[in-house]
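User: My instructor asked us to take a sequence, write out its structure as tokens, and then describe one feature of it. I'm not sure where to start. Here is the sequence I was given:
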Amino acid sequence: MKKRRFDDKARGTGKRKRKPVIFLSLEGNNKTEKQYFKSLNRSNGEKFSLQFTPGNETDINNMWEGLIDITRGSINPADGDMAFCVCDRDNETHKLDSIRSVKSKAKHSDLHLIISNPCFELWFLNHFKYSTHEYLSNNELKAELCRYIPCYDKSIDCFSFLEDKTEIAIENSIRQIEQVNGNDATEISVIGNPGTEIYKIVKVLI
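Assistant: Let's start with the prediction itself. The structure tokens for your sequence are:
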């Protein structure tokens, strides 16, 4: 008796269309950010398959290369696939040149660079308030966030605090960037110009 191969198809059946994929490169081992994107995707019907870079890179150049690695031969924009490198500005002077360098590469690529200044938590805070306050450190911003999400830290799943405020966060984020430099988000990389582009990923997922 002939063994049926795993990839044999029954006659008259077509190939099942796969979900579009969103590839994400996140800084370090950020469980909260990964869980947030997973929860957001799940709450909106899991229209996408999420794939994350396997490393714990914090250097933007290495994060970008990691994103290139997992998308090589796998990303197909025609099928709705997208890829994002999610980087914090961190108020570190030396980061600006690297951010601008990767931003330039992204212009000639199917991959996208997403900046938060000073850090990802500004996106969470934008669910609760609009502000152009200059946070002098990531810890200062996180302390402010704790007023709205008690005991916030990098290991918790905070989606339940945010889910019904997503549209508010999008509006506040766009307004912050427009306040800085019209619709050009490049200048949010400059210390003193708070802003986050996370809403660009969120608008795709919802």
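For the description part of your assignment, you could build on this observation: The beta strands are 21-26, 49-52, 82-88, 111-117, 195-196. Try explaining in your own words what that tells you about the chain.
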